[in-house]
């Protein structure tokens, strides 16, 4: 009920003022569905003049779809937020309508239309800008890859070569070594740089989702499928590059389909048998040993050969420690911009601490440590010192100390070796967050012998 503190004489004037002032369109029909009242905002939003609507019935359709008023009159119930497209003006509105009931009798229906065309235009524009921004952020220049070590220079040369040919590239390297950075750099330096670079994280999607994401689907292909179907990422990447990150994670089933796309250069959407040609350069990345995955039957051999036409191995940070000072300085300047700070440098002591760490998380770990240090630094501090760094284990394998048993319990050499072997495996295994493939990689042994040793030393 309305709360009115005015006498009935003022009531009509007040009501008129409200109807005139409101920015939302209001229309009222009587119990037969004949329009009896609209406000000025109605004309503004719908483009229909007062004279053209008063006296017309609700079926005089101003919108695409069913008349809300008729729904209310037949159902005798309010109709909640409904998105409508108004035909004369082309505007999009969100509408609500409710029955007018006086003394228990249905007297008509009132509808309120709120114009959301502006919001819709903005959302569309935002989407467009986001798309452009995505394309821009992937326009890495070769100088964005920091490092002067021989190892990284070699990789940069390979990247330049890869950019010049259309071949499929396979980037191999531990987590955080910069595979994504290199992939986008290849795209940015290639002739396809003006088209999309589309990244797919194969590990993040279930098998069926991955398939519909990659190839798209037809309307009604499965429950939850969008009306009109959906374009797949291969189509998005047409004339550009698709980056299949963590490719070792895709199922054998999807591998077969991927192989077909690479061979035939055409796709079929899920639930359709129409062939769509696509022109896409593929860059794949993995931190697994794909050759071993092939041996163990988890990765198709033919697909492996298809994607490893141009393999590029990115060495772990511990094999190019001389890049650390350069990387640190580039991260300082990056975070200065991001956090609005003014850090000048890092102390020699702090740098030395970084030089003694083993970097299982590679460049990403270094980037995080610098970022975190800069967040916690006081505003008057200008230099990163050891006090800003977290406790880093001195875990460089070469500098590692092996415990020598005391005189009282001199043991056999074999036992000392086993003890230190089991400790070392345990350490690497936990540092890699129990990633067996990576543990084996770091230890330089096969996965099979890692399993054997873990069982022997009861590591889990
Ligand atoms: N040589 C480099 N120069 C500058 N920044 C680098 C370099 N290598 C890596 N980075 C930065 O380190 C972070 C990790 O890199 P990226 O995401 O490319 O690694 P990744 O190999 O894809 O890791 P993961 O396997 O975990 O996905 C990114 O922020 C990236 O910009
Ligand atoms: Mg990555």
Return the average pLDDT rounded to an integer. Answer: 86
> What is the name of the CATH architecture of the largest domain?
3-Layer(aba) Sandwich
- The counted number of beta strands is 16
CATH topology of the largest domain: Rossmann fold
- Stretches where pLDDT falls below 50 for ≥5 residues? 396-406
Ligand set: adenosine-5'-triphosphate, magnesium ion
Number of domains as seen in the coordinates: 4
Structural class call reads alpha/beta
Large-scale geometry: elongated
C-alpha termini separation: 68 Å
Report the sheet with the most strands, covering strand number, pairing sense and barrel closure: 5 strands, antiparallel
CATH superfamily of the largest domain: P-loop containing nucleotide triphosphate hydrolases
Q: Please estimate the helix content.
A: 40-55%
- Using the coordinates above, name the CATH class of the largest domain: Alpha Beta
Give the helix tally. 18
**Widest sheet: strand ordering:** 2-1-5-4-3
> Compute the gyration radius: what is it?
33 Å
Tell me what portion of residues adopts beta-strand conformation: 15-25%
